[in-house]
Design goal:
Length: 150
C-alpha cells in the first residue's frame, strides 16, 4: 500500500493534469480559463442569470458582463430576457457553437473512458461517488479561497 506522502503526490499529479487539460482546452478554443469554465457551466446548467454566472465564476458583476460580452461576440452564448423579471438577463449557450468545444475535449473523454472501463462496475460506482462528492467540496473550497484572499 502506498504511503500517505506517495498518495499525496499521486493525487497532486492527478489534479495538476486535470487543471492543465482545462487550460489547454481553453487555449485550443481561443478562450481564457474563466471563459472556458463559464461555457462548461452553461453547457451543464442550460442557462444561468448573469448574477448566477457571476456567483459561480467568482467574478464581479462588471467582469461577468465583460465575460458575457466576449462569449456573445464569439458566438458561444446569447442573452435573453428573464421571463419573470425584466431586470434580469438569462445567459444561454448556443448549441451549435458548443460542438467545437466537444471536438476539443473529445480525446480526453475517450482516454478517461478507457481508464474507467478498466475498473469493475463496483469500482466505477466508488469512482463516480467520489466525483459526485468531490465536486461540491472543491466548489466550496474555491469559494473559501475567494472569501479569504484579501
Amino acid at each position: 500500500m502506498a504511503s500517505s506522502d506517495e498518495r499525496h503526490v499521486v493525487f497532486r499529479r492527478y489534479l495538476d493534469a486535470v487543471g492543465l487539460h482545462g487550460l489547454a482546452g481553453a487555449e485550443a478554443a481561443g478562450l481564457h480559463a474563466t471563459e472556458w469554465y463559464a461555457i462548461s457551466l452553461l453547457d451543464l446548467e442550460g442557462s444561468l442569470t448573469s448574477g448566477e454566472l457571476s456567483t459561480r465564476t467568482g467574478l464581479t458583476t462588471g467582469a461577468t458582463t465583460r465575460l458575457i460580452d466576449r462569449l456573445e461576440r464569439a458566438g458561444y452564448v446569447r442573452r435573453t430576457a428573464h421571463p419573470a423579471d425584466r431586470r434580469k438577463v438569462i445567459v444561454e449557450p448556443v448549441p451549435d457553437a458548443l460542438a467545437g468545444i466537444e471536438a476539443i475535449v473529445g480525446p480526453a473523454r475517450h482516454h478517461i473512458a478507457e481508464v474507467i472501463a478498466r475498473y469493475t462496475p463496483e469500482q466505477q460506482e466508488v469512482l463516480f461517488d467520489y466525483f459526485a462528492r468531490a465536486a461540491p467540496a472543491y466548489r466550496a473550497a474555491s469559494e473559501e479561497i475567494r472569501r479569504t484572499k484579501g
